[in-house]
Amino acid sequence: MPNYADILKEIEEEIQPLFSQGKVADYIPALSTVNAEDFAMSIQLLYGKSYHIGNTQHKFSIQSISKVFTFTLALKAYGKELYKRVNHEPSGNPFNSLVQLEYENGIPRNPFINAGAIVTTDALTSIYKENTFHTILEFIHTLTNDSSIQYDETIFCSEYQHGYRNMALINMIKSYKNIHNEIDDVMQTYFKQCSVMMNTQQLAQSMLFLANHGTNPKANEALITPSQAKRINALMLTCGHYDASGDFAYKVGLPGKSGVGGGIVAVVPQKMAICVYSPKLNSQGNSLIGTKALELFTTKTNLSIF
Ligand code: GLU
Fold first, then answer.
1. Is there an atom of ligand 1 within 6 Å of 166 CB?
2. For residue range 260-280, what is the model confidence (pLDDT) as tens digits?
3. Which of 70, 110, 114, 152 to mutate to test the pocket of ligand 1 (most atoms within 8 A of CB)?
């Protein structure tokens, strides 16, 4: 087995020259107040050990990583029916793009761009009504075995007040009759799920079921079917980094999902889940250092899926 503790130390050293690059997200004002120099990385093996480096206790806003949780819940509830409302192809467009939606009659390309995640949250709202956010949070608590995880009210309000593009997206989708609930109810849940605060240890833990054919290894409980786990991993690989998904697959070679809060989760099937945090982003809205750290990790360990 590779010496993961040493590999994490090497990665931390090798990323140092990159700290001058990238830019913290500021279109959600409350996100711009984070410490731009922060770095943390956690590896959680399927059974047993975990390895950590950096500020791994620091909780940050999970943002689009939440889309993995909501897509999992929606796929579990609706199965293939969900694909009538949200597709499973890469978009090749930025995370908050409006253009494709009009050409494609309000059916978002995939559940990991904002449009698709909003439809997914709407689908959950049809089932769980006013308890939708509570259901999402409880799912996160189950995955992490940690009920202290909550959302951040300041980040939620900040995004709610500045969510012009997301409001445009949901209005456009609703005009195509692909939103079934009240716009405000869906957006409140969407912004709350994005502002859930977790650290790298908790996030790595939360993704283990995807490394384990859909079964939560702690409780040995099947959360979704192996086939559904395969589909979620496939979508993370092809769509998890918006218009940089190809680049991430090319450099890192693992299913992964990023968030504009600076986190990236990645899955090594049958082996482990990883989370890295560094809030400065590249031009496609993905953590710049996080992407590099994961590239170094798969290069040093040969643990890419390819
Ligand atoms: N809450 C963010 C938004 O909707 C999510 C985007 C992301 O993390 O990539 O703009």
1. yes
2. 999 999 999 999 999 999 999
3. 114
pLDDT at 227 over 90: yes
Q: Is the pLDDT of residue 30 over 90?
A: yes
Active site residue 83: no
Res. 192: pLDDT tops 90: yes
- What pLDDT was estimated at residue 1? 85
Cα 125 to Cα 120, 129, 140, 297, distances in angstroms:
9, 5, 17, 38
Which ligand 1 atom minimizes the distance to the CA of 259? 8
Whether residue 272 contacts residue 44, with contact meaning beta carbons closer than 8 Å, is answered with yes
- Ligand 1, residue 63: give the atom nearest the CA: 8
Q: Is 47 a catalytic residue?
A: no
Report, in angstroms and rounded to the nearest whole number, the Rg of the chain calculated over CA atoms.
18
Residue-level pLDDT at 218 = 86
To the question of pTM greater than 0.90 for the whole model, the response is yes
CB contact at 8 A, 1 and 51: no
Domains detected in the chain: 4-62+197-301 (3.40.710.10), 64-194 (3.40.710.10)
Catalytic pick among 34, 119, 260, 267: 260
